[in-house]
Amino acid sequence: MERRRFLALAGAAGLTAAATAATAGPASAAAYPFYDSGVPAEAHTKLGELAPYGVTAFAFTPSGGWAVVTQDGRYFARGIPDACFAELGALAKAGRRVHCLAFPPEGGDRWVITTDKGVSSRGLPAACLQRVQSSYAAGQQVVDVAFPPAGGDRWVVTTTGGFHAKGVDDECYQMMRNLTEGGRKVTRVAFPKAGGWAVVAQDEYHARGIPDACFTRMGTLAGGGWQVHTVAFAPGGGWVLSTRGKAPALPADRVRQVENAVGGATVWQRMSAYRTPGVTVAVVVGNKIAWSTGYGRLEAGGAAAAHPESAFQAASISKAVAALGVLRLAQTGGPALSADVRPHLGWTLPSRDCVTSTAVPTIDRLLAHRAGVIGRGSTSPADACSGFASGGGGFAGYGPDADVPTLLQVMNGEGNSPRIELTTTPGAEYHYSGAGFVLLQRMLEQRTGLPLADYMQREVFAPLGMTTSSYALAPAFELAAGHTATGAVIPGRRNRYPESAAAGLYTSVLDLCRLVSWLNRAWTASGDLAGPLTRASVRTLLSEGAQPGMGRGLFLADAGTDGFSYTHDGANYGFRSVFKGYPKLGAGYAVLANGSDAALVTEIAAAIRKVYGWP
């Protein structure tokens, strides 16, 4: 597997500090290679003497002391607390194997030693010690404890079963999570005093802001097939790397394969090229979420990393999800899909003189963009019924200084979009139409007496466990900010869309993949599953309707084959999105991005399909 550095979104390597001294090693007599730089001469000498026995721990104290321990119980230390040194001796005598030795940045008599049979410590943050102890109580050995240089209640505890972190850099946490999603176990985390971090996970490693020479030597170890076992940073800027064996042979890491196959480059390089600060991805295999990851930041220059739980604007994916609400209403006593939508609007739908008066804009035709309601940008000239400008169908949204109109005002053309009307004869032509979904939203709200956000929460999101999804204008989730094509944050971070069913959904890739999993299972089930729709309604949703190649609010492909799929993408100001499901394969994916170039989500989706062999 290729080892790579974690690239900054600017495209340059995000590891800028320089080593403070020439790098030495590996020692000629060592069975296992090691490297160091900027450390006391005695530390270098002792590391060389002990490296042949397999170093399990090397640590620096905040005041410049240090200690080294091997897997067979040898140890040497200089300038560490007396009680810690005594405990090392006792543990060695008792035959304990030391996994980790660490010193909190506050200094003094504060330290922790984890072993194959328990922990010894003094002066740890209470929550950290509790986590270490509870891990052992649960039968998991603690292989590493690390402390960011800011001190206080900030720490990482890595165990044989996973990791726990508190108060660490959000991007560092993002990377630890992403590595474990790929089936790897985090084995070491280290923090230089000047900032930055390094994360090692068996045959993978990533870093930000560590000395260039250190990162280069990590690549040297990995290039020789060695696993990076020890990473330690001295308070003065020095560092130590060591190994005690070859990297393990592990199953293919699908996450890394996708990351490295985006547009012929890595996901970070493509994010940089498209000036997109943040992306989240989730993949469904066997109708379960197989993995989910986040890359970059929710806002350019911000501290919050993009996580699979983060909410993004889903843009026109809003239509696909709103279609479930429409079918739910029909299923529970509302108007049938074949019904004329006009009697359910509480409003008169205007019609151009040239539109045939006998044709009916049915709910089903609205769901398929064939109801004669042409979207924004396609209605000029105002008295024509053919020859319209290409494109259209979307809404611009409302920025921070604009008053947001009511839905009725949008319908009457009192916002920033033309009034909604019958422009062509219903059923005669296909015109992608956000305005048609505004009429469906109005129908839902009129029939239920609820705002769309409340109706969808009760009838769709709650039953499916979609906990980070909402049609509210400003939901109370941690939200991604949108960005322009230059990578700048858009004014107000997010435009507002009262045309909620057409463009106003906030959601996460996890929620979209929960939806994909449920739709796949409901499509193939022999009976009804618990959820918002019956099997018959799901079959209607995902079967071709009034428009060839479309179900209800979803685009279909390869019907009648194992590769049969449904999908929708989206483009709001500052956001791009796509999701797709394969009912017969039990598979699917979702990609959300806070940038303005749709090519990025398209490339990530293509990488997923390539790695898994999906059409």
UniProtKB/TrEMBL annotation:
Q: Which UniProt keywords apply?
A: Signal
Which is a Pfam family this sequence falls into?
Answer: Beta-lactamase
InterPro entries in alphabetical order: AmpC-like (IPR050491), Beta-lactam-related (IPR001466), Beta-lactam/transpept-like (IPR012338), Quino_amine_DH_bsu (IPR011044), TAT_signal (IPR006311), WD40/YVTN_repeat-like_dom_sf (IPR015943)
Query: What are the residue boundaries of the Beta-lactamase-related domain, all occurrences included?
Result: 269-607
The record ties this protein, via PROSITE patterns, to: TAT
This protein's source sits in the domain of life called Bacteria
Q: What is this protein called?
A: Beta-lactamase family protein
